[in-house]
TrEMBL record, chain A:
Its main location: membrane. The chain crosses the membrane at residues 20-40, 73-91, 103-123, 129-150, 159-180, 200-221, 250-275, 287-305, 317-337. SUPFAM superfamilies: ABC transporter involved in vitamin B12 uptake, BtuC. Pfam families: FecCD. GO terms for cellular component: plasma membrane. It is found in: Cell membrane. Belongs to the binding-protein-dependent transport system permease family. FecCD subfamily. This is ABC-type Fe3+-siderophore transport system, permease 2 component. InterPro entries: ABC_BtuC-like (IPR037294), ABC_transptr_permease_BtuC (IPR000522). It comes from Halomonas citrativorans. It comes from the Bacteria. One of its GO terms (biological process) is siderophore-iron import into cell.
Automatic annotation (TrEMBL), chain B:
It is found in: Cell envelope. It comes from Halomonas citrativorans. Residues 1-18 form the signal peptide. The keyword Iron applies. It comes from the Bacteria. This is ABC-type Fe3+-siderophore transport system, periplasmic iron-binding component. Its main location: other. Belongs to the bacterial solute-binding protein 8 family. Residues 43-307 form the Fe/B12 periplasmic-binding domain.
Length: 342, 319
């Protein structure tokens, strides 16, 4: 990874450089996908894996490859990308590098809804409704934040402060629910809140692909609006932007991406915060350039976090959420450190 | 060429015979549906502590089991019965699915409150039956018996159990006279709180034995969590069986804190010196017929009753 910014810096223009970074990251992602599908608690030879992927009907590890490893790895990629892009949009939107879905309350909304299903609904509501509940929670809370922060339009500061306040209040509700529930459902809820890709099945992957296929192109379409907004309200209005309308649309997009990600992978945090920062160290600070790089970084972060979670403590399978910060934070610190010295 | 056709015909004949067979597949009904199981499964994977205990009692040695919660990787009382080669599949909450698939089992046993989401995956690896953990260890025994094609052994174990229960009731009422039935409190001391059980493994056994359990106040939950010492009067009983769970030092500290409280000193069981520490594995974690018999052994010993085993068979798997 370290050689790669230098490799791409050989190019002349910004556009060239970002295309080069995207190409390198895509190759790394593909290789990582293959690596992730080759490794697991059940030893599988690399050639058997290749053979199994190409001709599944003739492979005796078809179940392990196609039902266990592949869906899980793909979901990690899509969820990581969605969270990262959602974080990028929020950071640009509120013009604050500390913004991320988990800071301004969207994730908390999804968490409360999911924990409700897992604790009070234990044995009554099937866990199959969890994704829907999480998405509804995220949407409801986002709506609440906007309504409460509304005062002839929404300003970034009000949005962030209201979001932080609501996140704190919802955090209290989640804690209360956990304290009141039995050990079993509390443990279940804890694992969910950490964020886990354990036992991912195809319907989840397909569901997530749908939201990503909807959200990422929309993000590209709205990239220019984001750049205009990040210049500040006065300039944005001067440039003919309908500030409030753009803001609501972008917030909605961020909610869709976060809601879907959390719905299928649980309360993962940190990816939305860290992936855009890492991307900014690699390419120019333009949204169109940042978007694909951020998405790729997010995908890689979650893929490796999950890989560590399922391999490092065998035979135990630990939630990926534990390792996201574990690998993301040192990498970001390294990049910041290097950047300062240049 | 003709030889090949003959072989093929023979083979297909064999296969259809095996499928239709003299022995039809058994249909086992469980919380997540119905599962068809053919023959007597030899490669059994247990993803639930109670099922591991029960399978061993029935003479089935699982080839893969989930790790226990304490005494890892497996409770001492079951460890000797398991071969060295048994594969540990991580924790009950997130069992190692690749490991399960790699074992190529012909029966998987899971639990309703743990494995709802992975049930579709497990079912694709092998016929999977799910334990209804809301029911007692006898229902578990019946289910595992049906799934492993050992209904007779399960029935036998149940009869032995019932005989032991009847013997215990007879002996203890003769011994305690008017003091029987005793009011009992089943208490778990943890690092930051104390629990009183109304339902669950130990409570259901003690109720069956004729002990009188505390006023349930119309609750059907497992019991109550006492976070503050003001709740101590809820533990009022003639005899208290107590198990310590969690980090030793902090649990001992909590116990010491509670035990010196005036409300604790005022409990009947405490005043009469009838508070006894018991094994948390037997009383709360084992969850199967072997653990149930161990619990009964502990009670026989505790009340100094004459040990009673209806047939030697039931002790086969007792280490």
């Amino acid at each position: 990874m370290t050689a790669q910014p230098r490799l791409c810096a050989l190019q002349h223009s910004d556009a060239h450089q970002s295309r080069c970074v995207v190409a390198v990251l895509s190759v790394i992602l593909l290789a990582s996908l293959l690596l992730s599908v080759s490794l697991g608690s059940q030893p599988t030879a690399f050639m058997d894996v290749l053979h199994g992927l190409i001709r599944p009907q003739h492979s005796d590890i078809q179940l392990i490859l196609y039902e266990l490893r592949l869906p899980r790895t793909l979901l990690a990629i899509f969820v990581g990308a969605a969270l990262a892009v959602s974080g990028l949009i929020l950071q640009k939107l509120v013009r604050n590098p500390l913004a991320s879905p988990d800071v301004i309350g969207i994730s908390s909304g999804a968490s409360v809804a999911a924990v409700l299903v897992l604790t009070l609904g234990a044995g009554v509501i099937s866990e199959r409704w969890l994704p829907l509940a999480a998405m509804a929670g995220a949407a409801l809370v986002a709506l609440g934040i906007v309504t409460l922060a509304w005062s002839r339009g929404v300003t970034p500061t009000r949005l962030v402060l209201m979001g932080i306040g609501i996140a704190a209040a919802l955090g209290a509700v989640t804690t209360l629910l956990l304290v009141l529930s039995t050990d079993t459902s509390a443990m279940h809820a804890y694992i969910w809140m950490t964020g886990s890709l354990y036992a991912t099945q195809w319907p989840s992957v397909i569901g997530m692909v749908f939201w990503v296929a909807l959200g990422l192109p929309l993000a590209f379409v709205m990239a220019r609006q984001l750049d205009v907004l990040s210049l500040g309200d006065e300039l944005a209005i001067g440039l003919g932007s309908q500030v409030t309308m753009s803001r609501l649309k972008l917030l909605g997009l961020s909610v869709i991406l976060t809601g879907a990600a959390i719905a299928y992978a649980g309360g993962l945090s940190f990816i939305g915060l860290i992936a855009p920062h890492i991307a900014r160290r690699l390419v120019a600070n333009r949204t169109t350039a940042l978007l694909p790089v951020t998405a790729l970084i997010g995908a890689l972060l979650l893929l490796y976090a999950d890989l560590i979670g399922r391999l490092a403590f065998l035979p135990r399978d630990l939630p990926a959420g534990i390792f996201v910060a574990g690998i993301g934070a040192p990498f970001l610190i390294y990049l910041l450190y290097r950047w300062q010295r240049h | 060429m003709r030889f090949l056709y003959v072989m093929l015909a023979l083979l297909s004949g064999l296969l259809t015979n095996a499928a239709v067979g003299d022995e039809p597949a058994r249909r086992v009904v469980h919380p997540f549906g119905e599962t068809l199981i053919e023959g007597q499964p030899a490669r059994v994977v247990s993803l639930y502590q109670g099922a591991t205990d029960t399978a061993l009692a029935l003479g089935v040695t699982p080839i893969g089991v989930v790790e226990s919660w304490v005494e890892r990787p497996m409770y001492h009382y079951l460890r000797d019965a398991l071969p060295e080669t048994v594969r540990y599949l991580g924790l009950e909450t997130q069992p190692d699915l690749e490991g399960v698939a790699g074992l190529r089992p012909d029966l998987i046993i899971g639990a309703d409150y743990r494995h709802e989401l992975v049930y579709p995956l497990l079912s694709r690896m092998a016929p999977t039956v799910i334990v209804n953990t809301g029911l007692d260890f006898k229902a578990l025994l019946t289910l595992v018996g049906a799934a492993t094609d050992r209904e007779d052994a399960a029935h036998q174990l149940l009869i032995q159990w019932n005989t032991r229960v009847a013997d215990f009731k007879r002996q203890i009422s003769a011994k305690l006279g008017d003091a029987w039935p005793q009011r009992v409190a089943i208490v778990s001391v943890r690092a930051d709180h104390v629990r009183l059980y109304y339902h669950g493994f130990a409570a259901s056994i003690l109720a069956e034995l004729g002990f009188s359990l505390p006023d349930k106040q119309g609750r059907d939950s497992w019991g109550i969590k006492l976070s503050s010492r003001e709740g101590i009067p809820a533990l009022e009983s003639d005899v208290m069986f107590m198990f310590l769970q969690g980090a030793e030092a902090s649990v001992a500290y909590t116990l010491a804190q509670w035990a010196q409280h005036p409300l604790w000193q005022n409990l009947t069981a405490v005043r009469n010196d009838q508070v006894f520490e018991v094994d948390p594995v037997t009383w709360n974690m084992g969850g199967g017929i072997i653990a149930a018999n161990h619990l009964l052994d502990e009670l026989y010993a505790h009340y100094r009753l004459a040990p009673f085993y209806p047939e030697e068979g039931v002790r086969v798997n007792h280490p």
